[in-house]
Specification:
The protein has 226 residues and is of the alpha+beta class. The chain folds into two domains: 8-144, no CATH class; 157-224, Nucleic acid-binding proteins (OB fold (Dihydrolipoamide Acetyltransferase, E2P)). Helices cover 49% and strands 15% of the residues. It contains eight helices and seven strands. A five-stranded mixed β-barrel has the order 1-3-4-7-6. The radius of gyration is 22 Å and the shape is elongated. It starts with a helix and ends with a helix.
């Protein structure tokens, strides 16, 4: 098998997957495969790469480029599953269609700049088609992940998390919950005007499903009330 992979007959295949625009999907697929391998080995959680876990800046509001990305994914139906699942689907289908186009049609395209001129529209087209197909495949998967999320919520309510952002108030903040693995990064909000600082211990008191956030109180207040 390895002899076939290293034979000269595979050279056109390697050339196609490493040329623009297929190479973009090839890199994404390699990253996804490495991620799934590490996840299978139990070194990270499946939800480690999650839209709500990315890129929150310590600003006065909770609006970031990630929120805009989330809106676009919601519009195209790419929601309800871990982000890595969505990226894997889009990368796989994008790579497949892009490879076919490059393999069968790019032979007539001159080398050099024209490859990039032709490759740009091909990438956009295959990306759009892969999003549409991925959205259809994600639909039947949502209930499975929804049930898993509900089970997780039941298990972690009442547990102590550590504030990881510069602050947590009723409009902004994240906390890290140790789960024996890579940990869970959760969007958290306080009750009223209370504000917590980075490193403070808070207790997950309530989960607001429509906003995907947890209401938290201080560990001291939680212990005093129990």
């Amino acid at each position: 098998m390895f002899a076939i992979l290293l034979s000269k007959s595979m050279d056109p295949f390697y050339q196609n997957i490493s040329s623009f625009p297929t190479v973009i999907y090839t890199v994404l697929l390699v990253v996804c495969l490495l991620y799934w391998l590490v996840a299978i080995l139990g070194l990270i959680d499946l939800d480690f790469l999650h839209l709500d876990h990315l890129g929150h800046a310590d600003s006065l509001d909770d609006t970031t480029s990630v929120d805009t990305l989330g809106g676009l994914m919601l519009r195209f139906g790419l929601y309800g599953v871990p982000l890595i699942v969505t990226i894997s689907f889009v990368s796989l289908f994008g790579w497949f269609f892009c490879y076919l186009i490059v393999h069968y049609l790019f032979g007539i395209v001159p080398d050099g700049l024209w490859r990039y001129v032709a490759g740009g529209p091909v990438f956009v087209l295959t990306f759009y088609v892969s999003i549409l197909i991925s959205a259809q495949l994600i639909k039947p998967l949502r209930p499975l992940f929804k049930k898993a999320e509900q089970d997780t919520v039941k298990q972690i309510l009442g547990q102590v998390a550590i504030v990881r952002t510069s602050r947590v108030d009723n409009n902004f903040g994240e906390a890290m919950l140790e789960d024996g693995g890579a940990g869970l990064i959760l969007k958290v909000r306080t009750i009223g005007d209370e504000v917590f600082q980075k490193g403070d211990s808070v207790v997950l008191l309530e989960y607001l499903d429509e906003k995907n956030i947890y209401r938290v109180i201080s560990e001291e207040d939680f212990n005093d009330n129990n």
